[in-house]
Amino acid sequence: MNFSHDEPEAIFGELSSQTAGYPDEPRPDPKLALSDEQTKKLDLWPLVKEQLAKSLTSQEFDSWIKPIKAEIQGQTLVLETPTAFSREWIERYHFERVRSFVEELGQSFDPPLALEINLVEATPLKPATSPSLVAAPDLKLVPHSEPTTSNLYPLVGPLNLLQRFNFSTFVPSQANKLAYEAAQAFARDVNLDYNILFMSGGPGLGKSHLIQAIAQAHLDNFHRKKVSYLRARDFSEEYYKALDSGQIDAFRRKYCYDCDLLLLEDLQYFIEGKKPKFQAEFNQTLDLLLNHNKKIVLTSKKDLKTYLSLGDSFSIPTIFSSLEMFLSPPDYEARLGIFSLKAKMANLPLNQATLEYLAEQPFENVRLIESCLLTLTAKNRYLQKLITLEDAKNALSKVSEQAKNPATPETIKSFVCQQFMVKEDEICSGDKHQNIKTARAVGIYLVVKLAGLNYQAAADLFGRTRTTAYNSISFVEKEMIKDSKFHDKVEFLIDKLDEKKR
Q1: What are the pLDDT digits (tens) for 382-407?
Q2: CATH class entry, domain 149-326
Q3: Which CATH fold topology does 405-501 show?
């Protein structure tokens, strides 16, 4: 979903109390025009709200039910929500409860009331009449010609954000639409009554894409606000270094007071080492940010229920007040959109039949889609031929085999050292000899492609930084397209690793 600057904001916006007509146009008291029968019907809604307040948490009630406005239209109870996002949320999580109370309490009237329920969102005001609305950034596709180190994985600013991870390049499935819209709302600092967005899901489903898109769009919208983006591991290491060096006050100032938006990836890292003292410190950080009405975005491979099941061994209870969004594997429409978009970005000509065939395959995550496209792109550049449906089937067969039998990171690392004739301590060192640098880059590329490691984990395995991992993958992909001998060498390594698995 894309918004332009001159387009009314149809999904999220800070709405004034006047949700219909123009701001200077007075709204008549709706009850003046109601008959006695209609007034009696309208009296049902306050009773329903009372029951909902008892059955929901106070935060759920205040966030989703309290803002609803009720109107009677014939035999229909029209419930108006402030935004499309809140309407979809209520539809998904609270509508059955609302309908049950309407039916149950309607029977207590004389005569009994039988009303249909229509859930709608308020009509947003025109941007010109509401200065408080913040327009979504006009995000453009990152132009891609011949892939190079600088334009395949360009980084944005000191936060090391991938430029390609923006809202215009995220293709949401139907199941991920709410997460996509919630991320855009956080990027525009729209008031959702939730100051923590928690995105969970498996690898390759778009958590990193959305959290970095939030960071980039927020920086575009609010130039003076301070944004901190990092991974849980980096946050933990920085904390312990500050503790050891007596700089804990400076650490707390940086993340608690000098930060307007904190974005942190891979929260599950905090429970892997069972660090209760650090968990308590992080929880204090979240509390201080929330007390100052700051925003927080978290990603995790584990959902909130998993953390809740840890009981007393988990010391970050503040995350349970999050707005949680689950990211699911892409459906057919999303896969078709992803293949089309990424092929266009890579200047890879694919006809509609090939695109549709690829989209019909049940790819579980975007990384597998990217792996398939990379194989096709290399073939297109290397052989100077148009990609056929048969080429797509061959690429798909290779990707499917890799997905079924992933090689272990340590096996890949050891095998790369053997093939490049370097020692494992050399490949993890800062040695800048060309052969060692190339071996290291290929090793990082392969553990991401074949073993499914994320960039940080791949960097850790080879003793490098996350930025080095980005640059290494970019280098390998560029060389595979440009240099046929290098392409054959990497493909040889992949084939041999496949044989080892068998």
Answers
A1: 666 677 788 878 777 766 665 555 67
A2: alpha beta
A3: Chromosomal Replication Initiator Protein Dnaa; Chain: A; (1.10.1750)
